[in-house]
Specification:
single chain, alpha/beta, UDP-n-acetylglucosamine1-carboxyvinyl-transferase, Chain, 4-stranded mixed β-sheet, 12 helices, 23 strands
């Protein structure tokens, strides 16, 4: 992205938040649609596509793989699909810090019959991919690790792909299952996929299945796994509009609660396919005043905001925002089901605990939980962001609690929401 950011950004204390925010396109939906369109027969027009580092990583990779993508500006792209595996049979891809791009592209590359390498920034080399590779091995693919076993970079050869039942772990990242599902229709035969363990972020897999159906592959999500049917592969549905980003909505809904509101977000609502709209229901259960329409959500403070224990298994990304709203609660808040935070852009459990303590907050941390006890008063602090966009966006909200907050490396928001700080200023000015 071309936006310039200073090394640090200081947010002055704000006492009120109100206004309306039109959300950018969902990163999760944008990158899934880009890949599905690339693999489909026909030309797909995507409108409202997110403009961010993560989507540009995917667009650049697909072009390197022989896919024609015409950028029509105003978040409108035309993709001429390959109607099957990627046309380019050799490529060296750099996928930055985009875990979704890495895990979905590696799966599709393994069934494309070429020689490929996929790598990223140093943190990407610490993000696991072994469960996806292990799941695909029964299919006769050729995937090898260039350095450390279980982690990128990976080297992919033509292999001898064949149909076979597969099993994949579901308790580390739902992106492994998403990668498998989006790639398997390239084999054009029925394949049952068994998921071992609890499936984290199930709503993200439901997004994957929903979008695959729009491209003509009627996957069936069951309690123990997914069945990918025999098909002729993906077919373009023509024009597809990208929903607003429900994860991004969480920051402004939280601003509405912490800053009394009302703050309204448009682009997601009752009819959204994204599981992170569940964040609004959590806020309501804690005492916030939440109102919803088909494509909008509005938040304002209620009579009081309660603490308690919140199961975040289904909304791990939006759950980070709950660690900040917890600072305005009347009792400690315990977030559970967040083990997946450990393998994100940074170890988010450790990072969140460390930075909350800078604000004077008592924090307890477990392998898959975080307990936040709000102090009588907060103290100003400079927040490290660990090259993690969600750390920056979450901690910016602390300025609504009456303190100045300085965000290190604010430009990390380019990953998913380049205009975030301008949008936040618009509702807190």
């Amino acid at each position: 992205m071309t936006l310039d950011f200073p090394p640090q950004l200081t947010l002055s204390p704000a006492s009120h938040a109100a206004g309306t925010i039109a959300l950018p396109g969902s990163k999760s939906i944008s990158n899934r649609l880009l890949l599905l369109a690339a693999l489909a027969r026909g030309t797909t027009t995507l409108t409202g596509l997110l403009e961010s580092d993560d989507t540009q990583v995917m667009v650049t990779a697909l072009r390197a793989l022989g896919i024609t993508i015409r950028d029509r500006r105003a978040q409108r792209y035309e993709i001429d699909g390959a109607g099957g595996p990627f046309p380019a049979k050799a490529a060296d891809l750099h996928l930055g810090l985009s875990g979704l791009s890495m895990r979905t592209l590696v799966a599709a590359l393994a069934l494309s019959g070429g020689h490929y390498r996929a790598d990223g920034v140093p943190r990407m080399r610490e993000r696991p991919i072994g469960d996806l590779v292990d799941a695909m091995r029964p299919l006769g693919v050729d995937i090898r690790y260039e350095l450390a076993a279980g982690f990128p970079p990976v080297l992919i050869g033509p292999g001898a792909p064949q149909a076979a039942p597969v099993r994949v772990r579901g308790d580390v990242s739902s992106q492994f299952l998403t990668g498998l599902l989006q790639a398997l229709p390239l084999l054009r035969t029925r394949i049952p996929v068994t998921v071992d363990g609890d499936l984290v972020s199930r709503p993200y897999v439901e997004i994957t299945c929903n979008l695959m159906r729009r491209f003509g592959v009627d996957v069936v999500l069951e309690s123990a796994g997914v069945v990918v049917p025999a098909s002729a592969g993906y077919a373009s549905p023509g024009t597809v509009a990208v929903e607003g980003d429900a994860s991004g909505a969480s920051y402004f809904l939280a601003a509405g609660v912490l800053g009394r509101g009302p703050v309204r977000v448009t682009g997601v609502g009752r009819e959204s396919v994204q599981g992170d709209v569940g964040f609004a229901h959590v806020l309501a259960a804690q005492g916030a005043d939440i109102r919803m329409g088909p494509d909008w959500i509005e938040a304002r403070a209620g009579a009081r905001f309660r603490g308690g224990t919140i199961d975040c298994l289904a909304i791990p990304d939006a759950a980070m925002t709950l660690a900040i709203t917890a600072l305005g609660a009347d009792a400690p808040t315990t977030l559970t089901g967040i083990a997946s935070w450990r393998v994100k852009e940074t170890d988010r459990l450790a990072a969140m605990a460390s930075e909350l303590r800078k604000l004077g907050v008592t924090v307890e941390e477990g392998p898959d939980w975080l307990r936040v006890t709000p102090p009588a008063s907060l103290q100003p602090a400079t927040i490290a962001t660990y090259d993690d966009h969600r750390m920056a966006m979450c901690f910016a909200l602390a300025s609504l609690l009456g303190i100045a907050v300085t965000i290190d490396d604010p430009g990390c928001v380019r990953k998913t929401y380049p205009d975030y700080f301008a949008a936040l200023a618009a509702v807190t000015a």
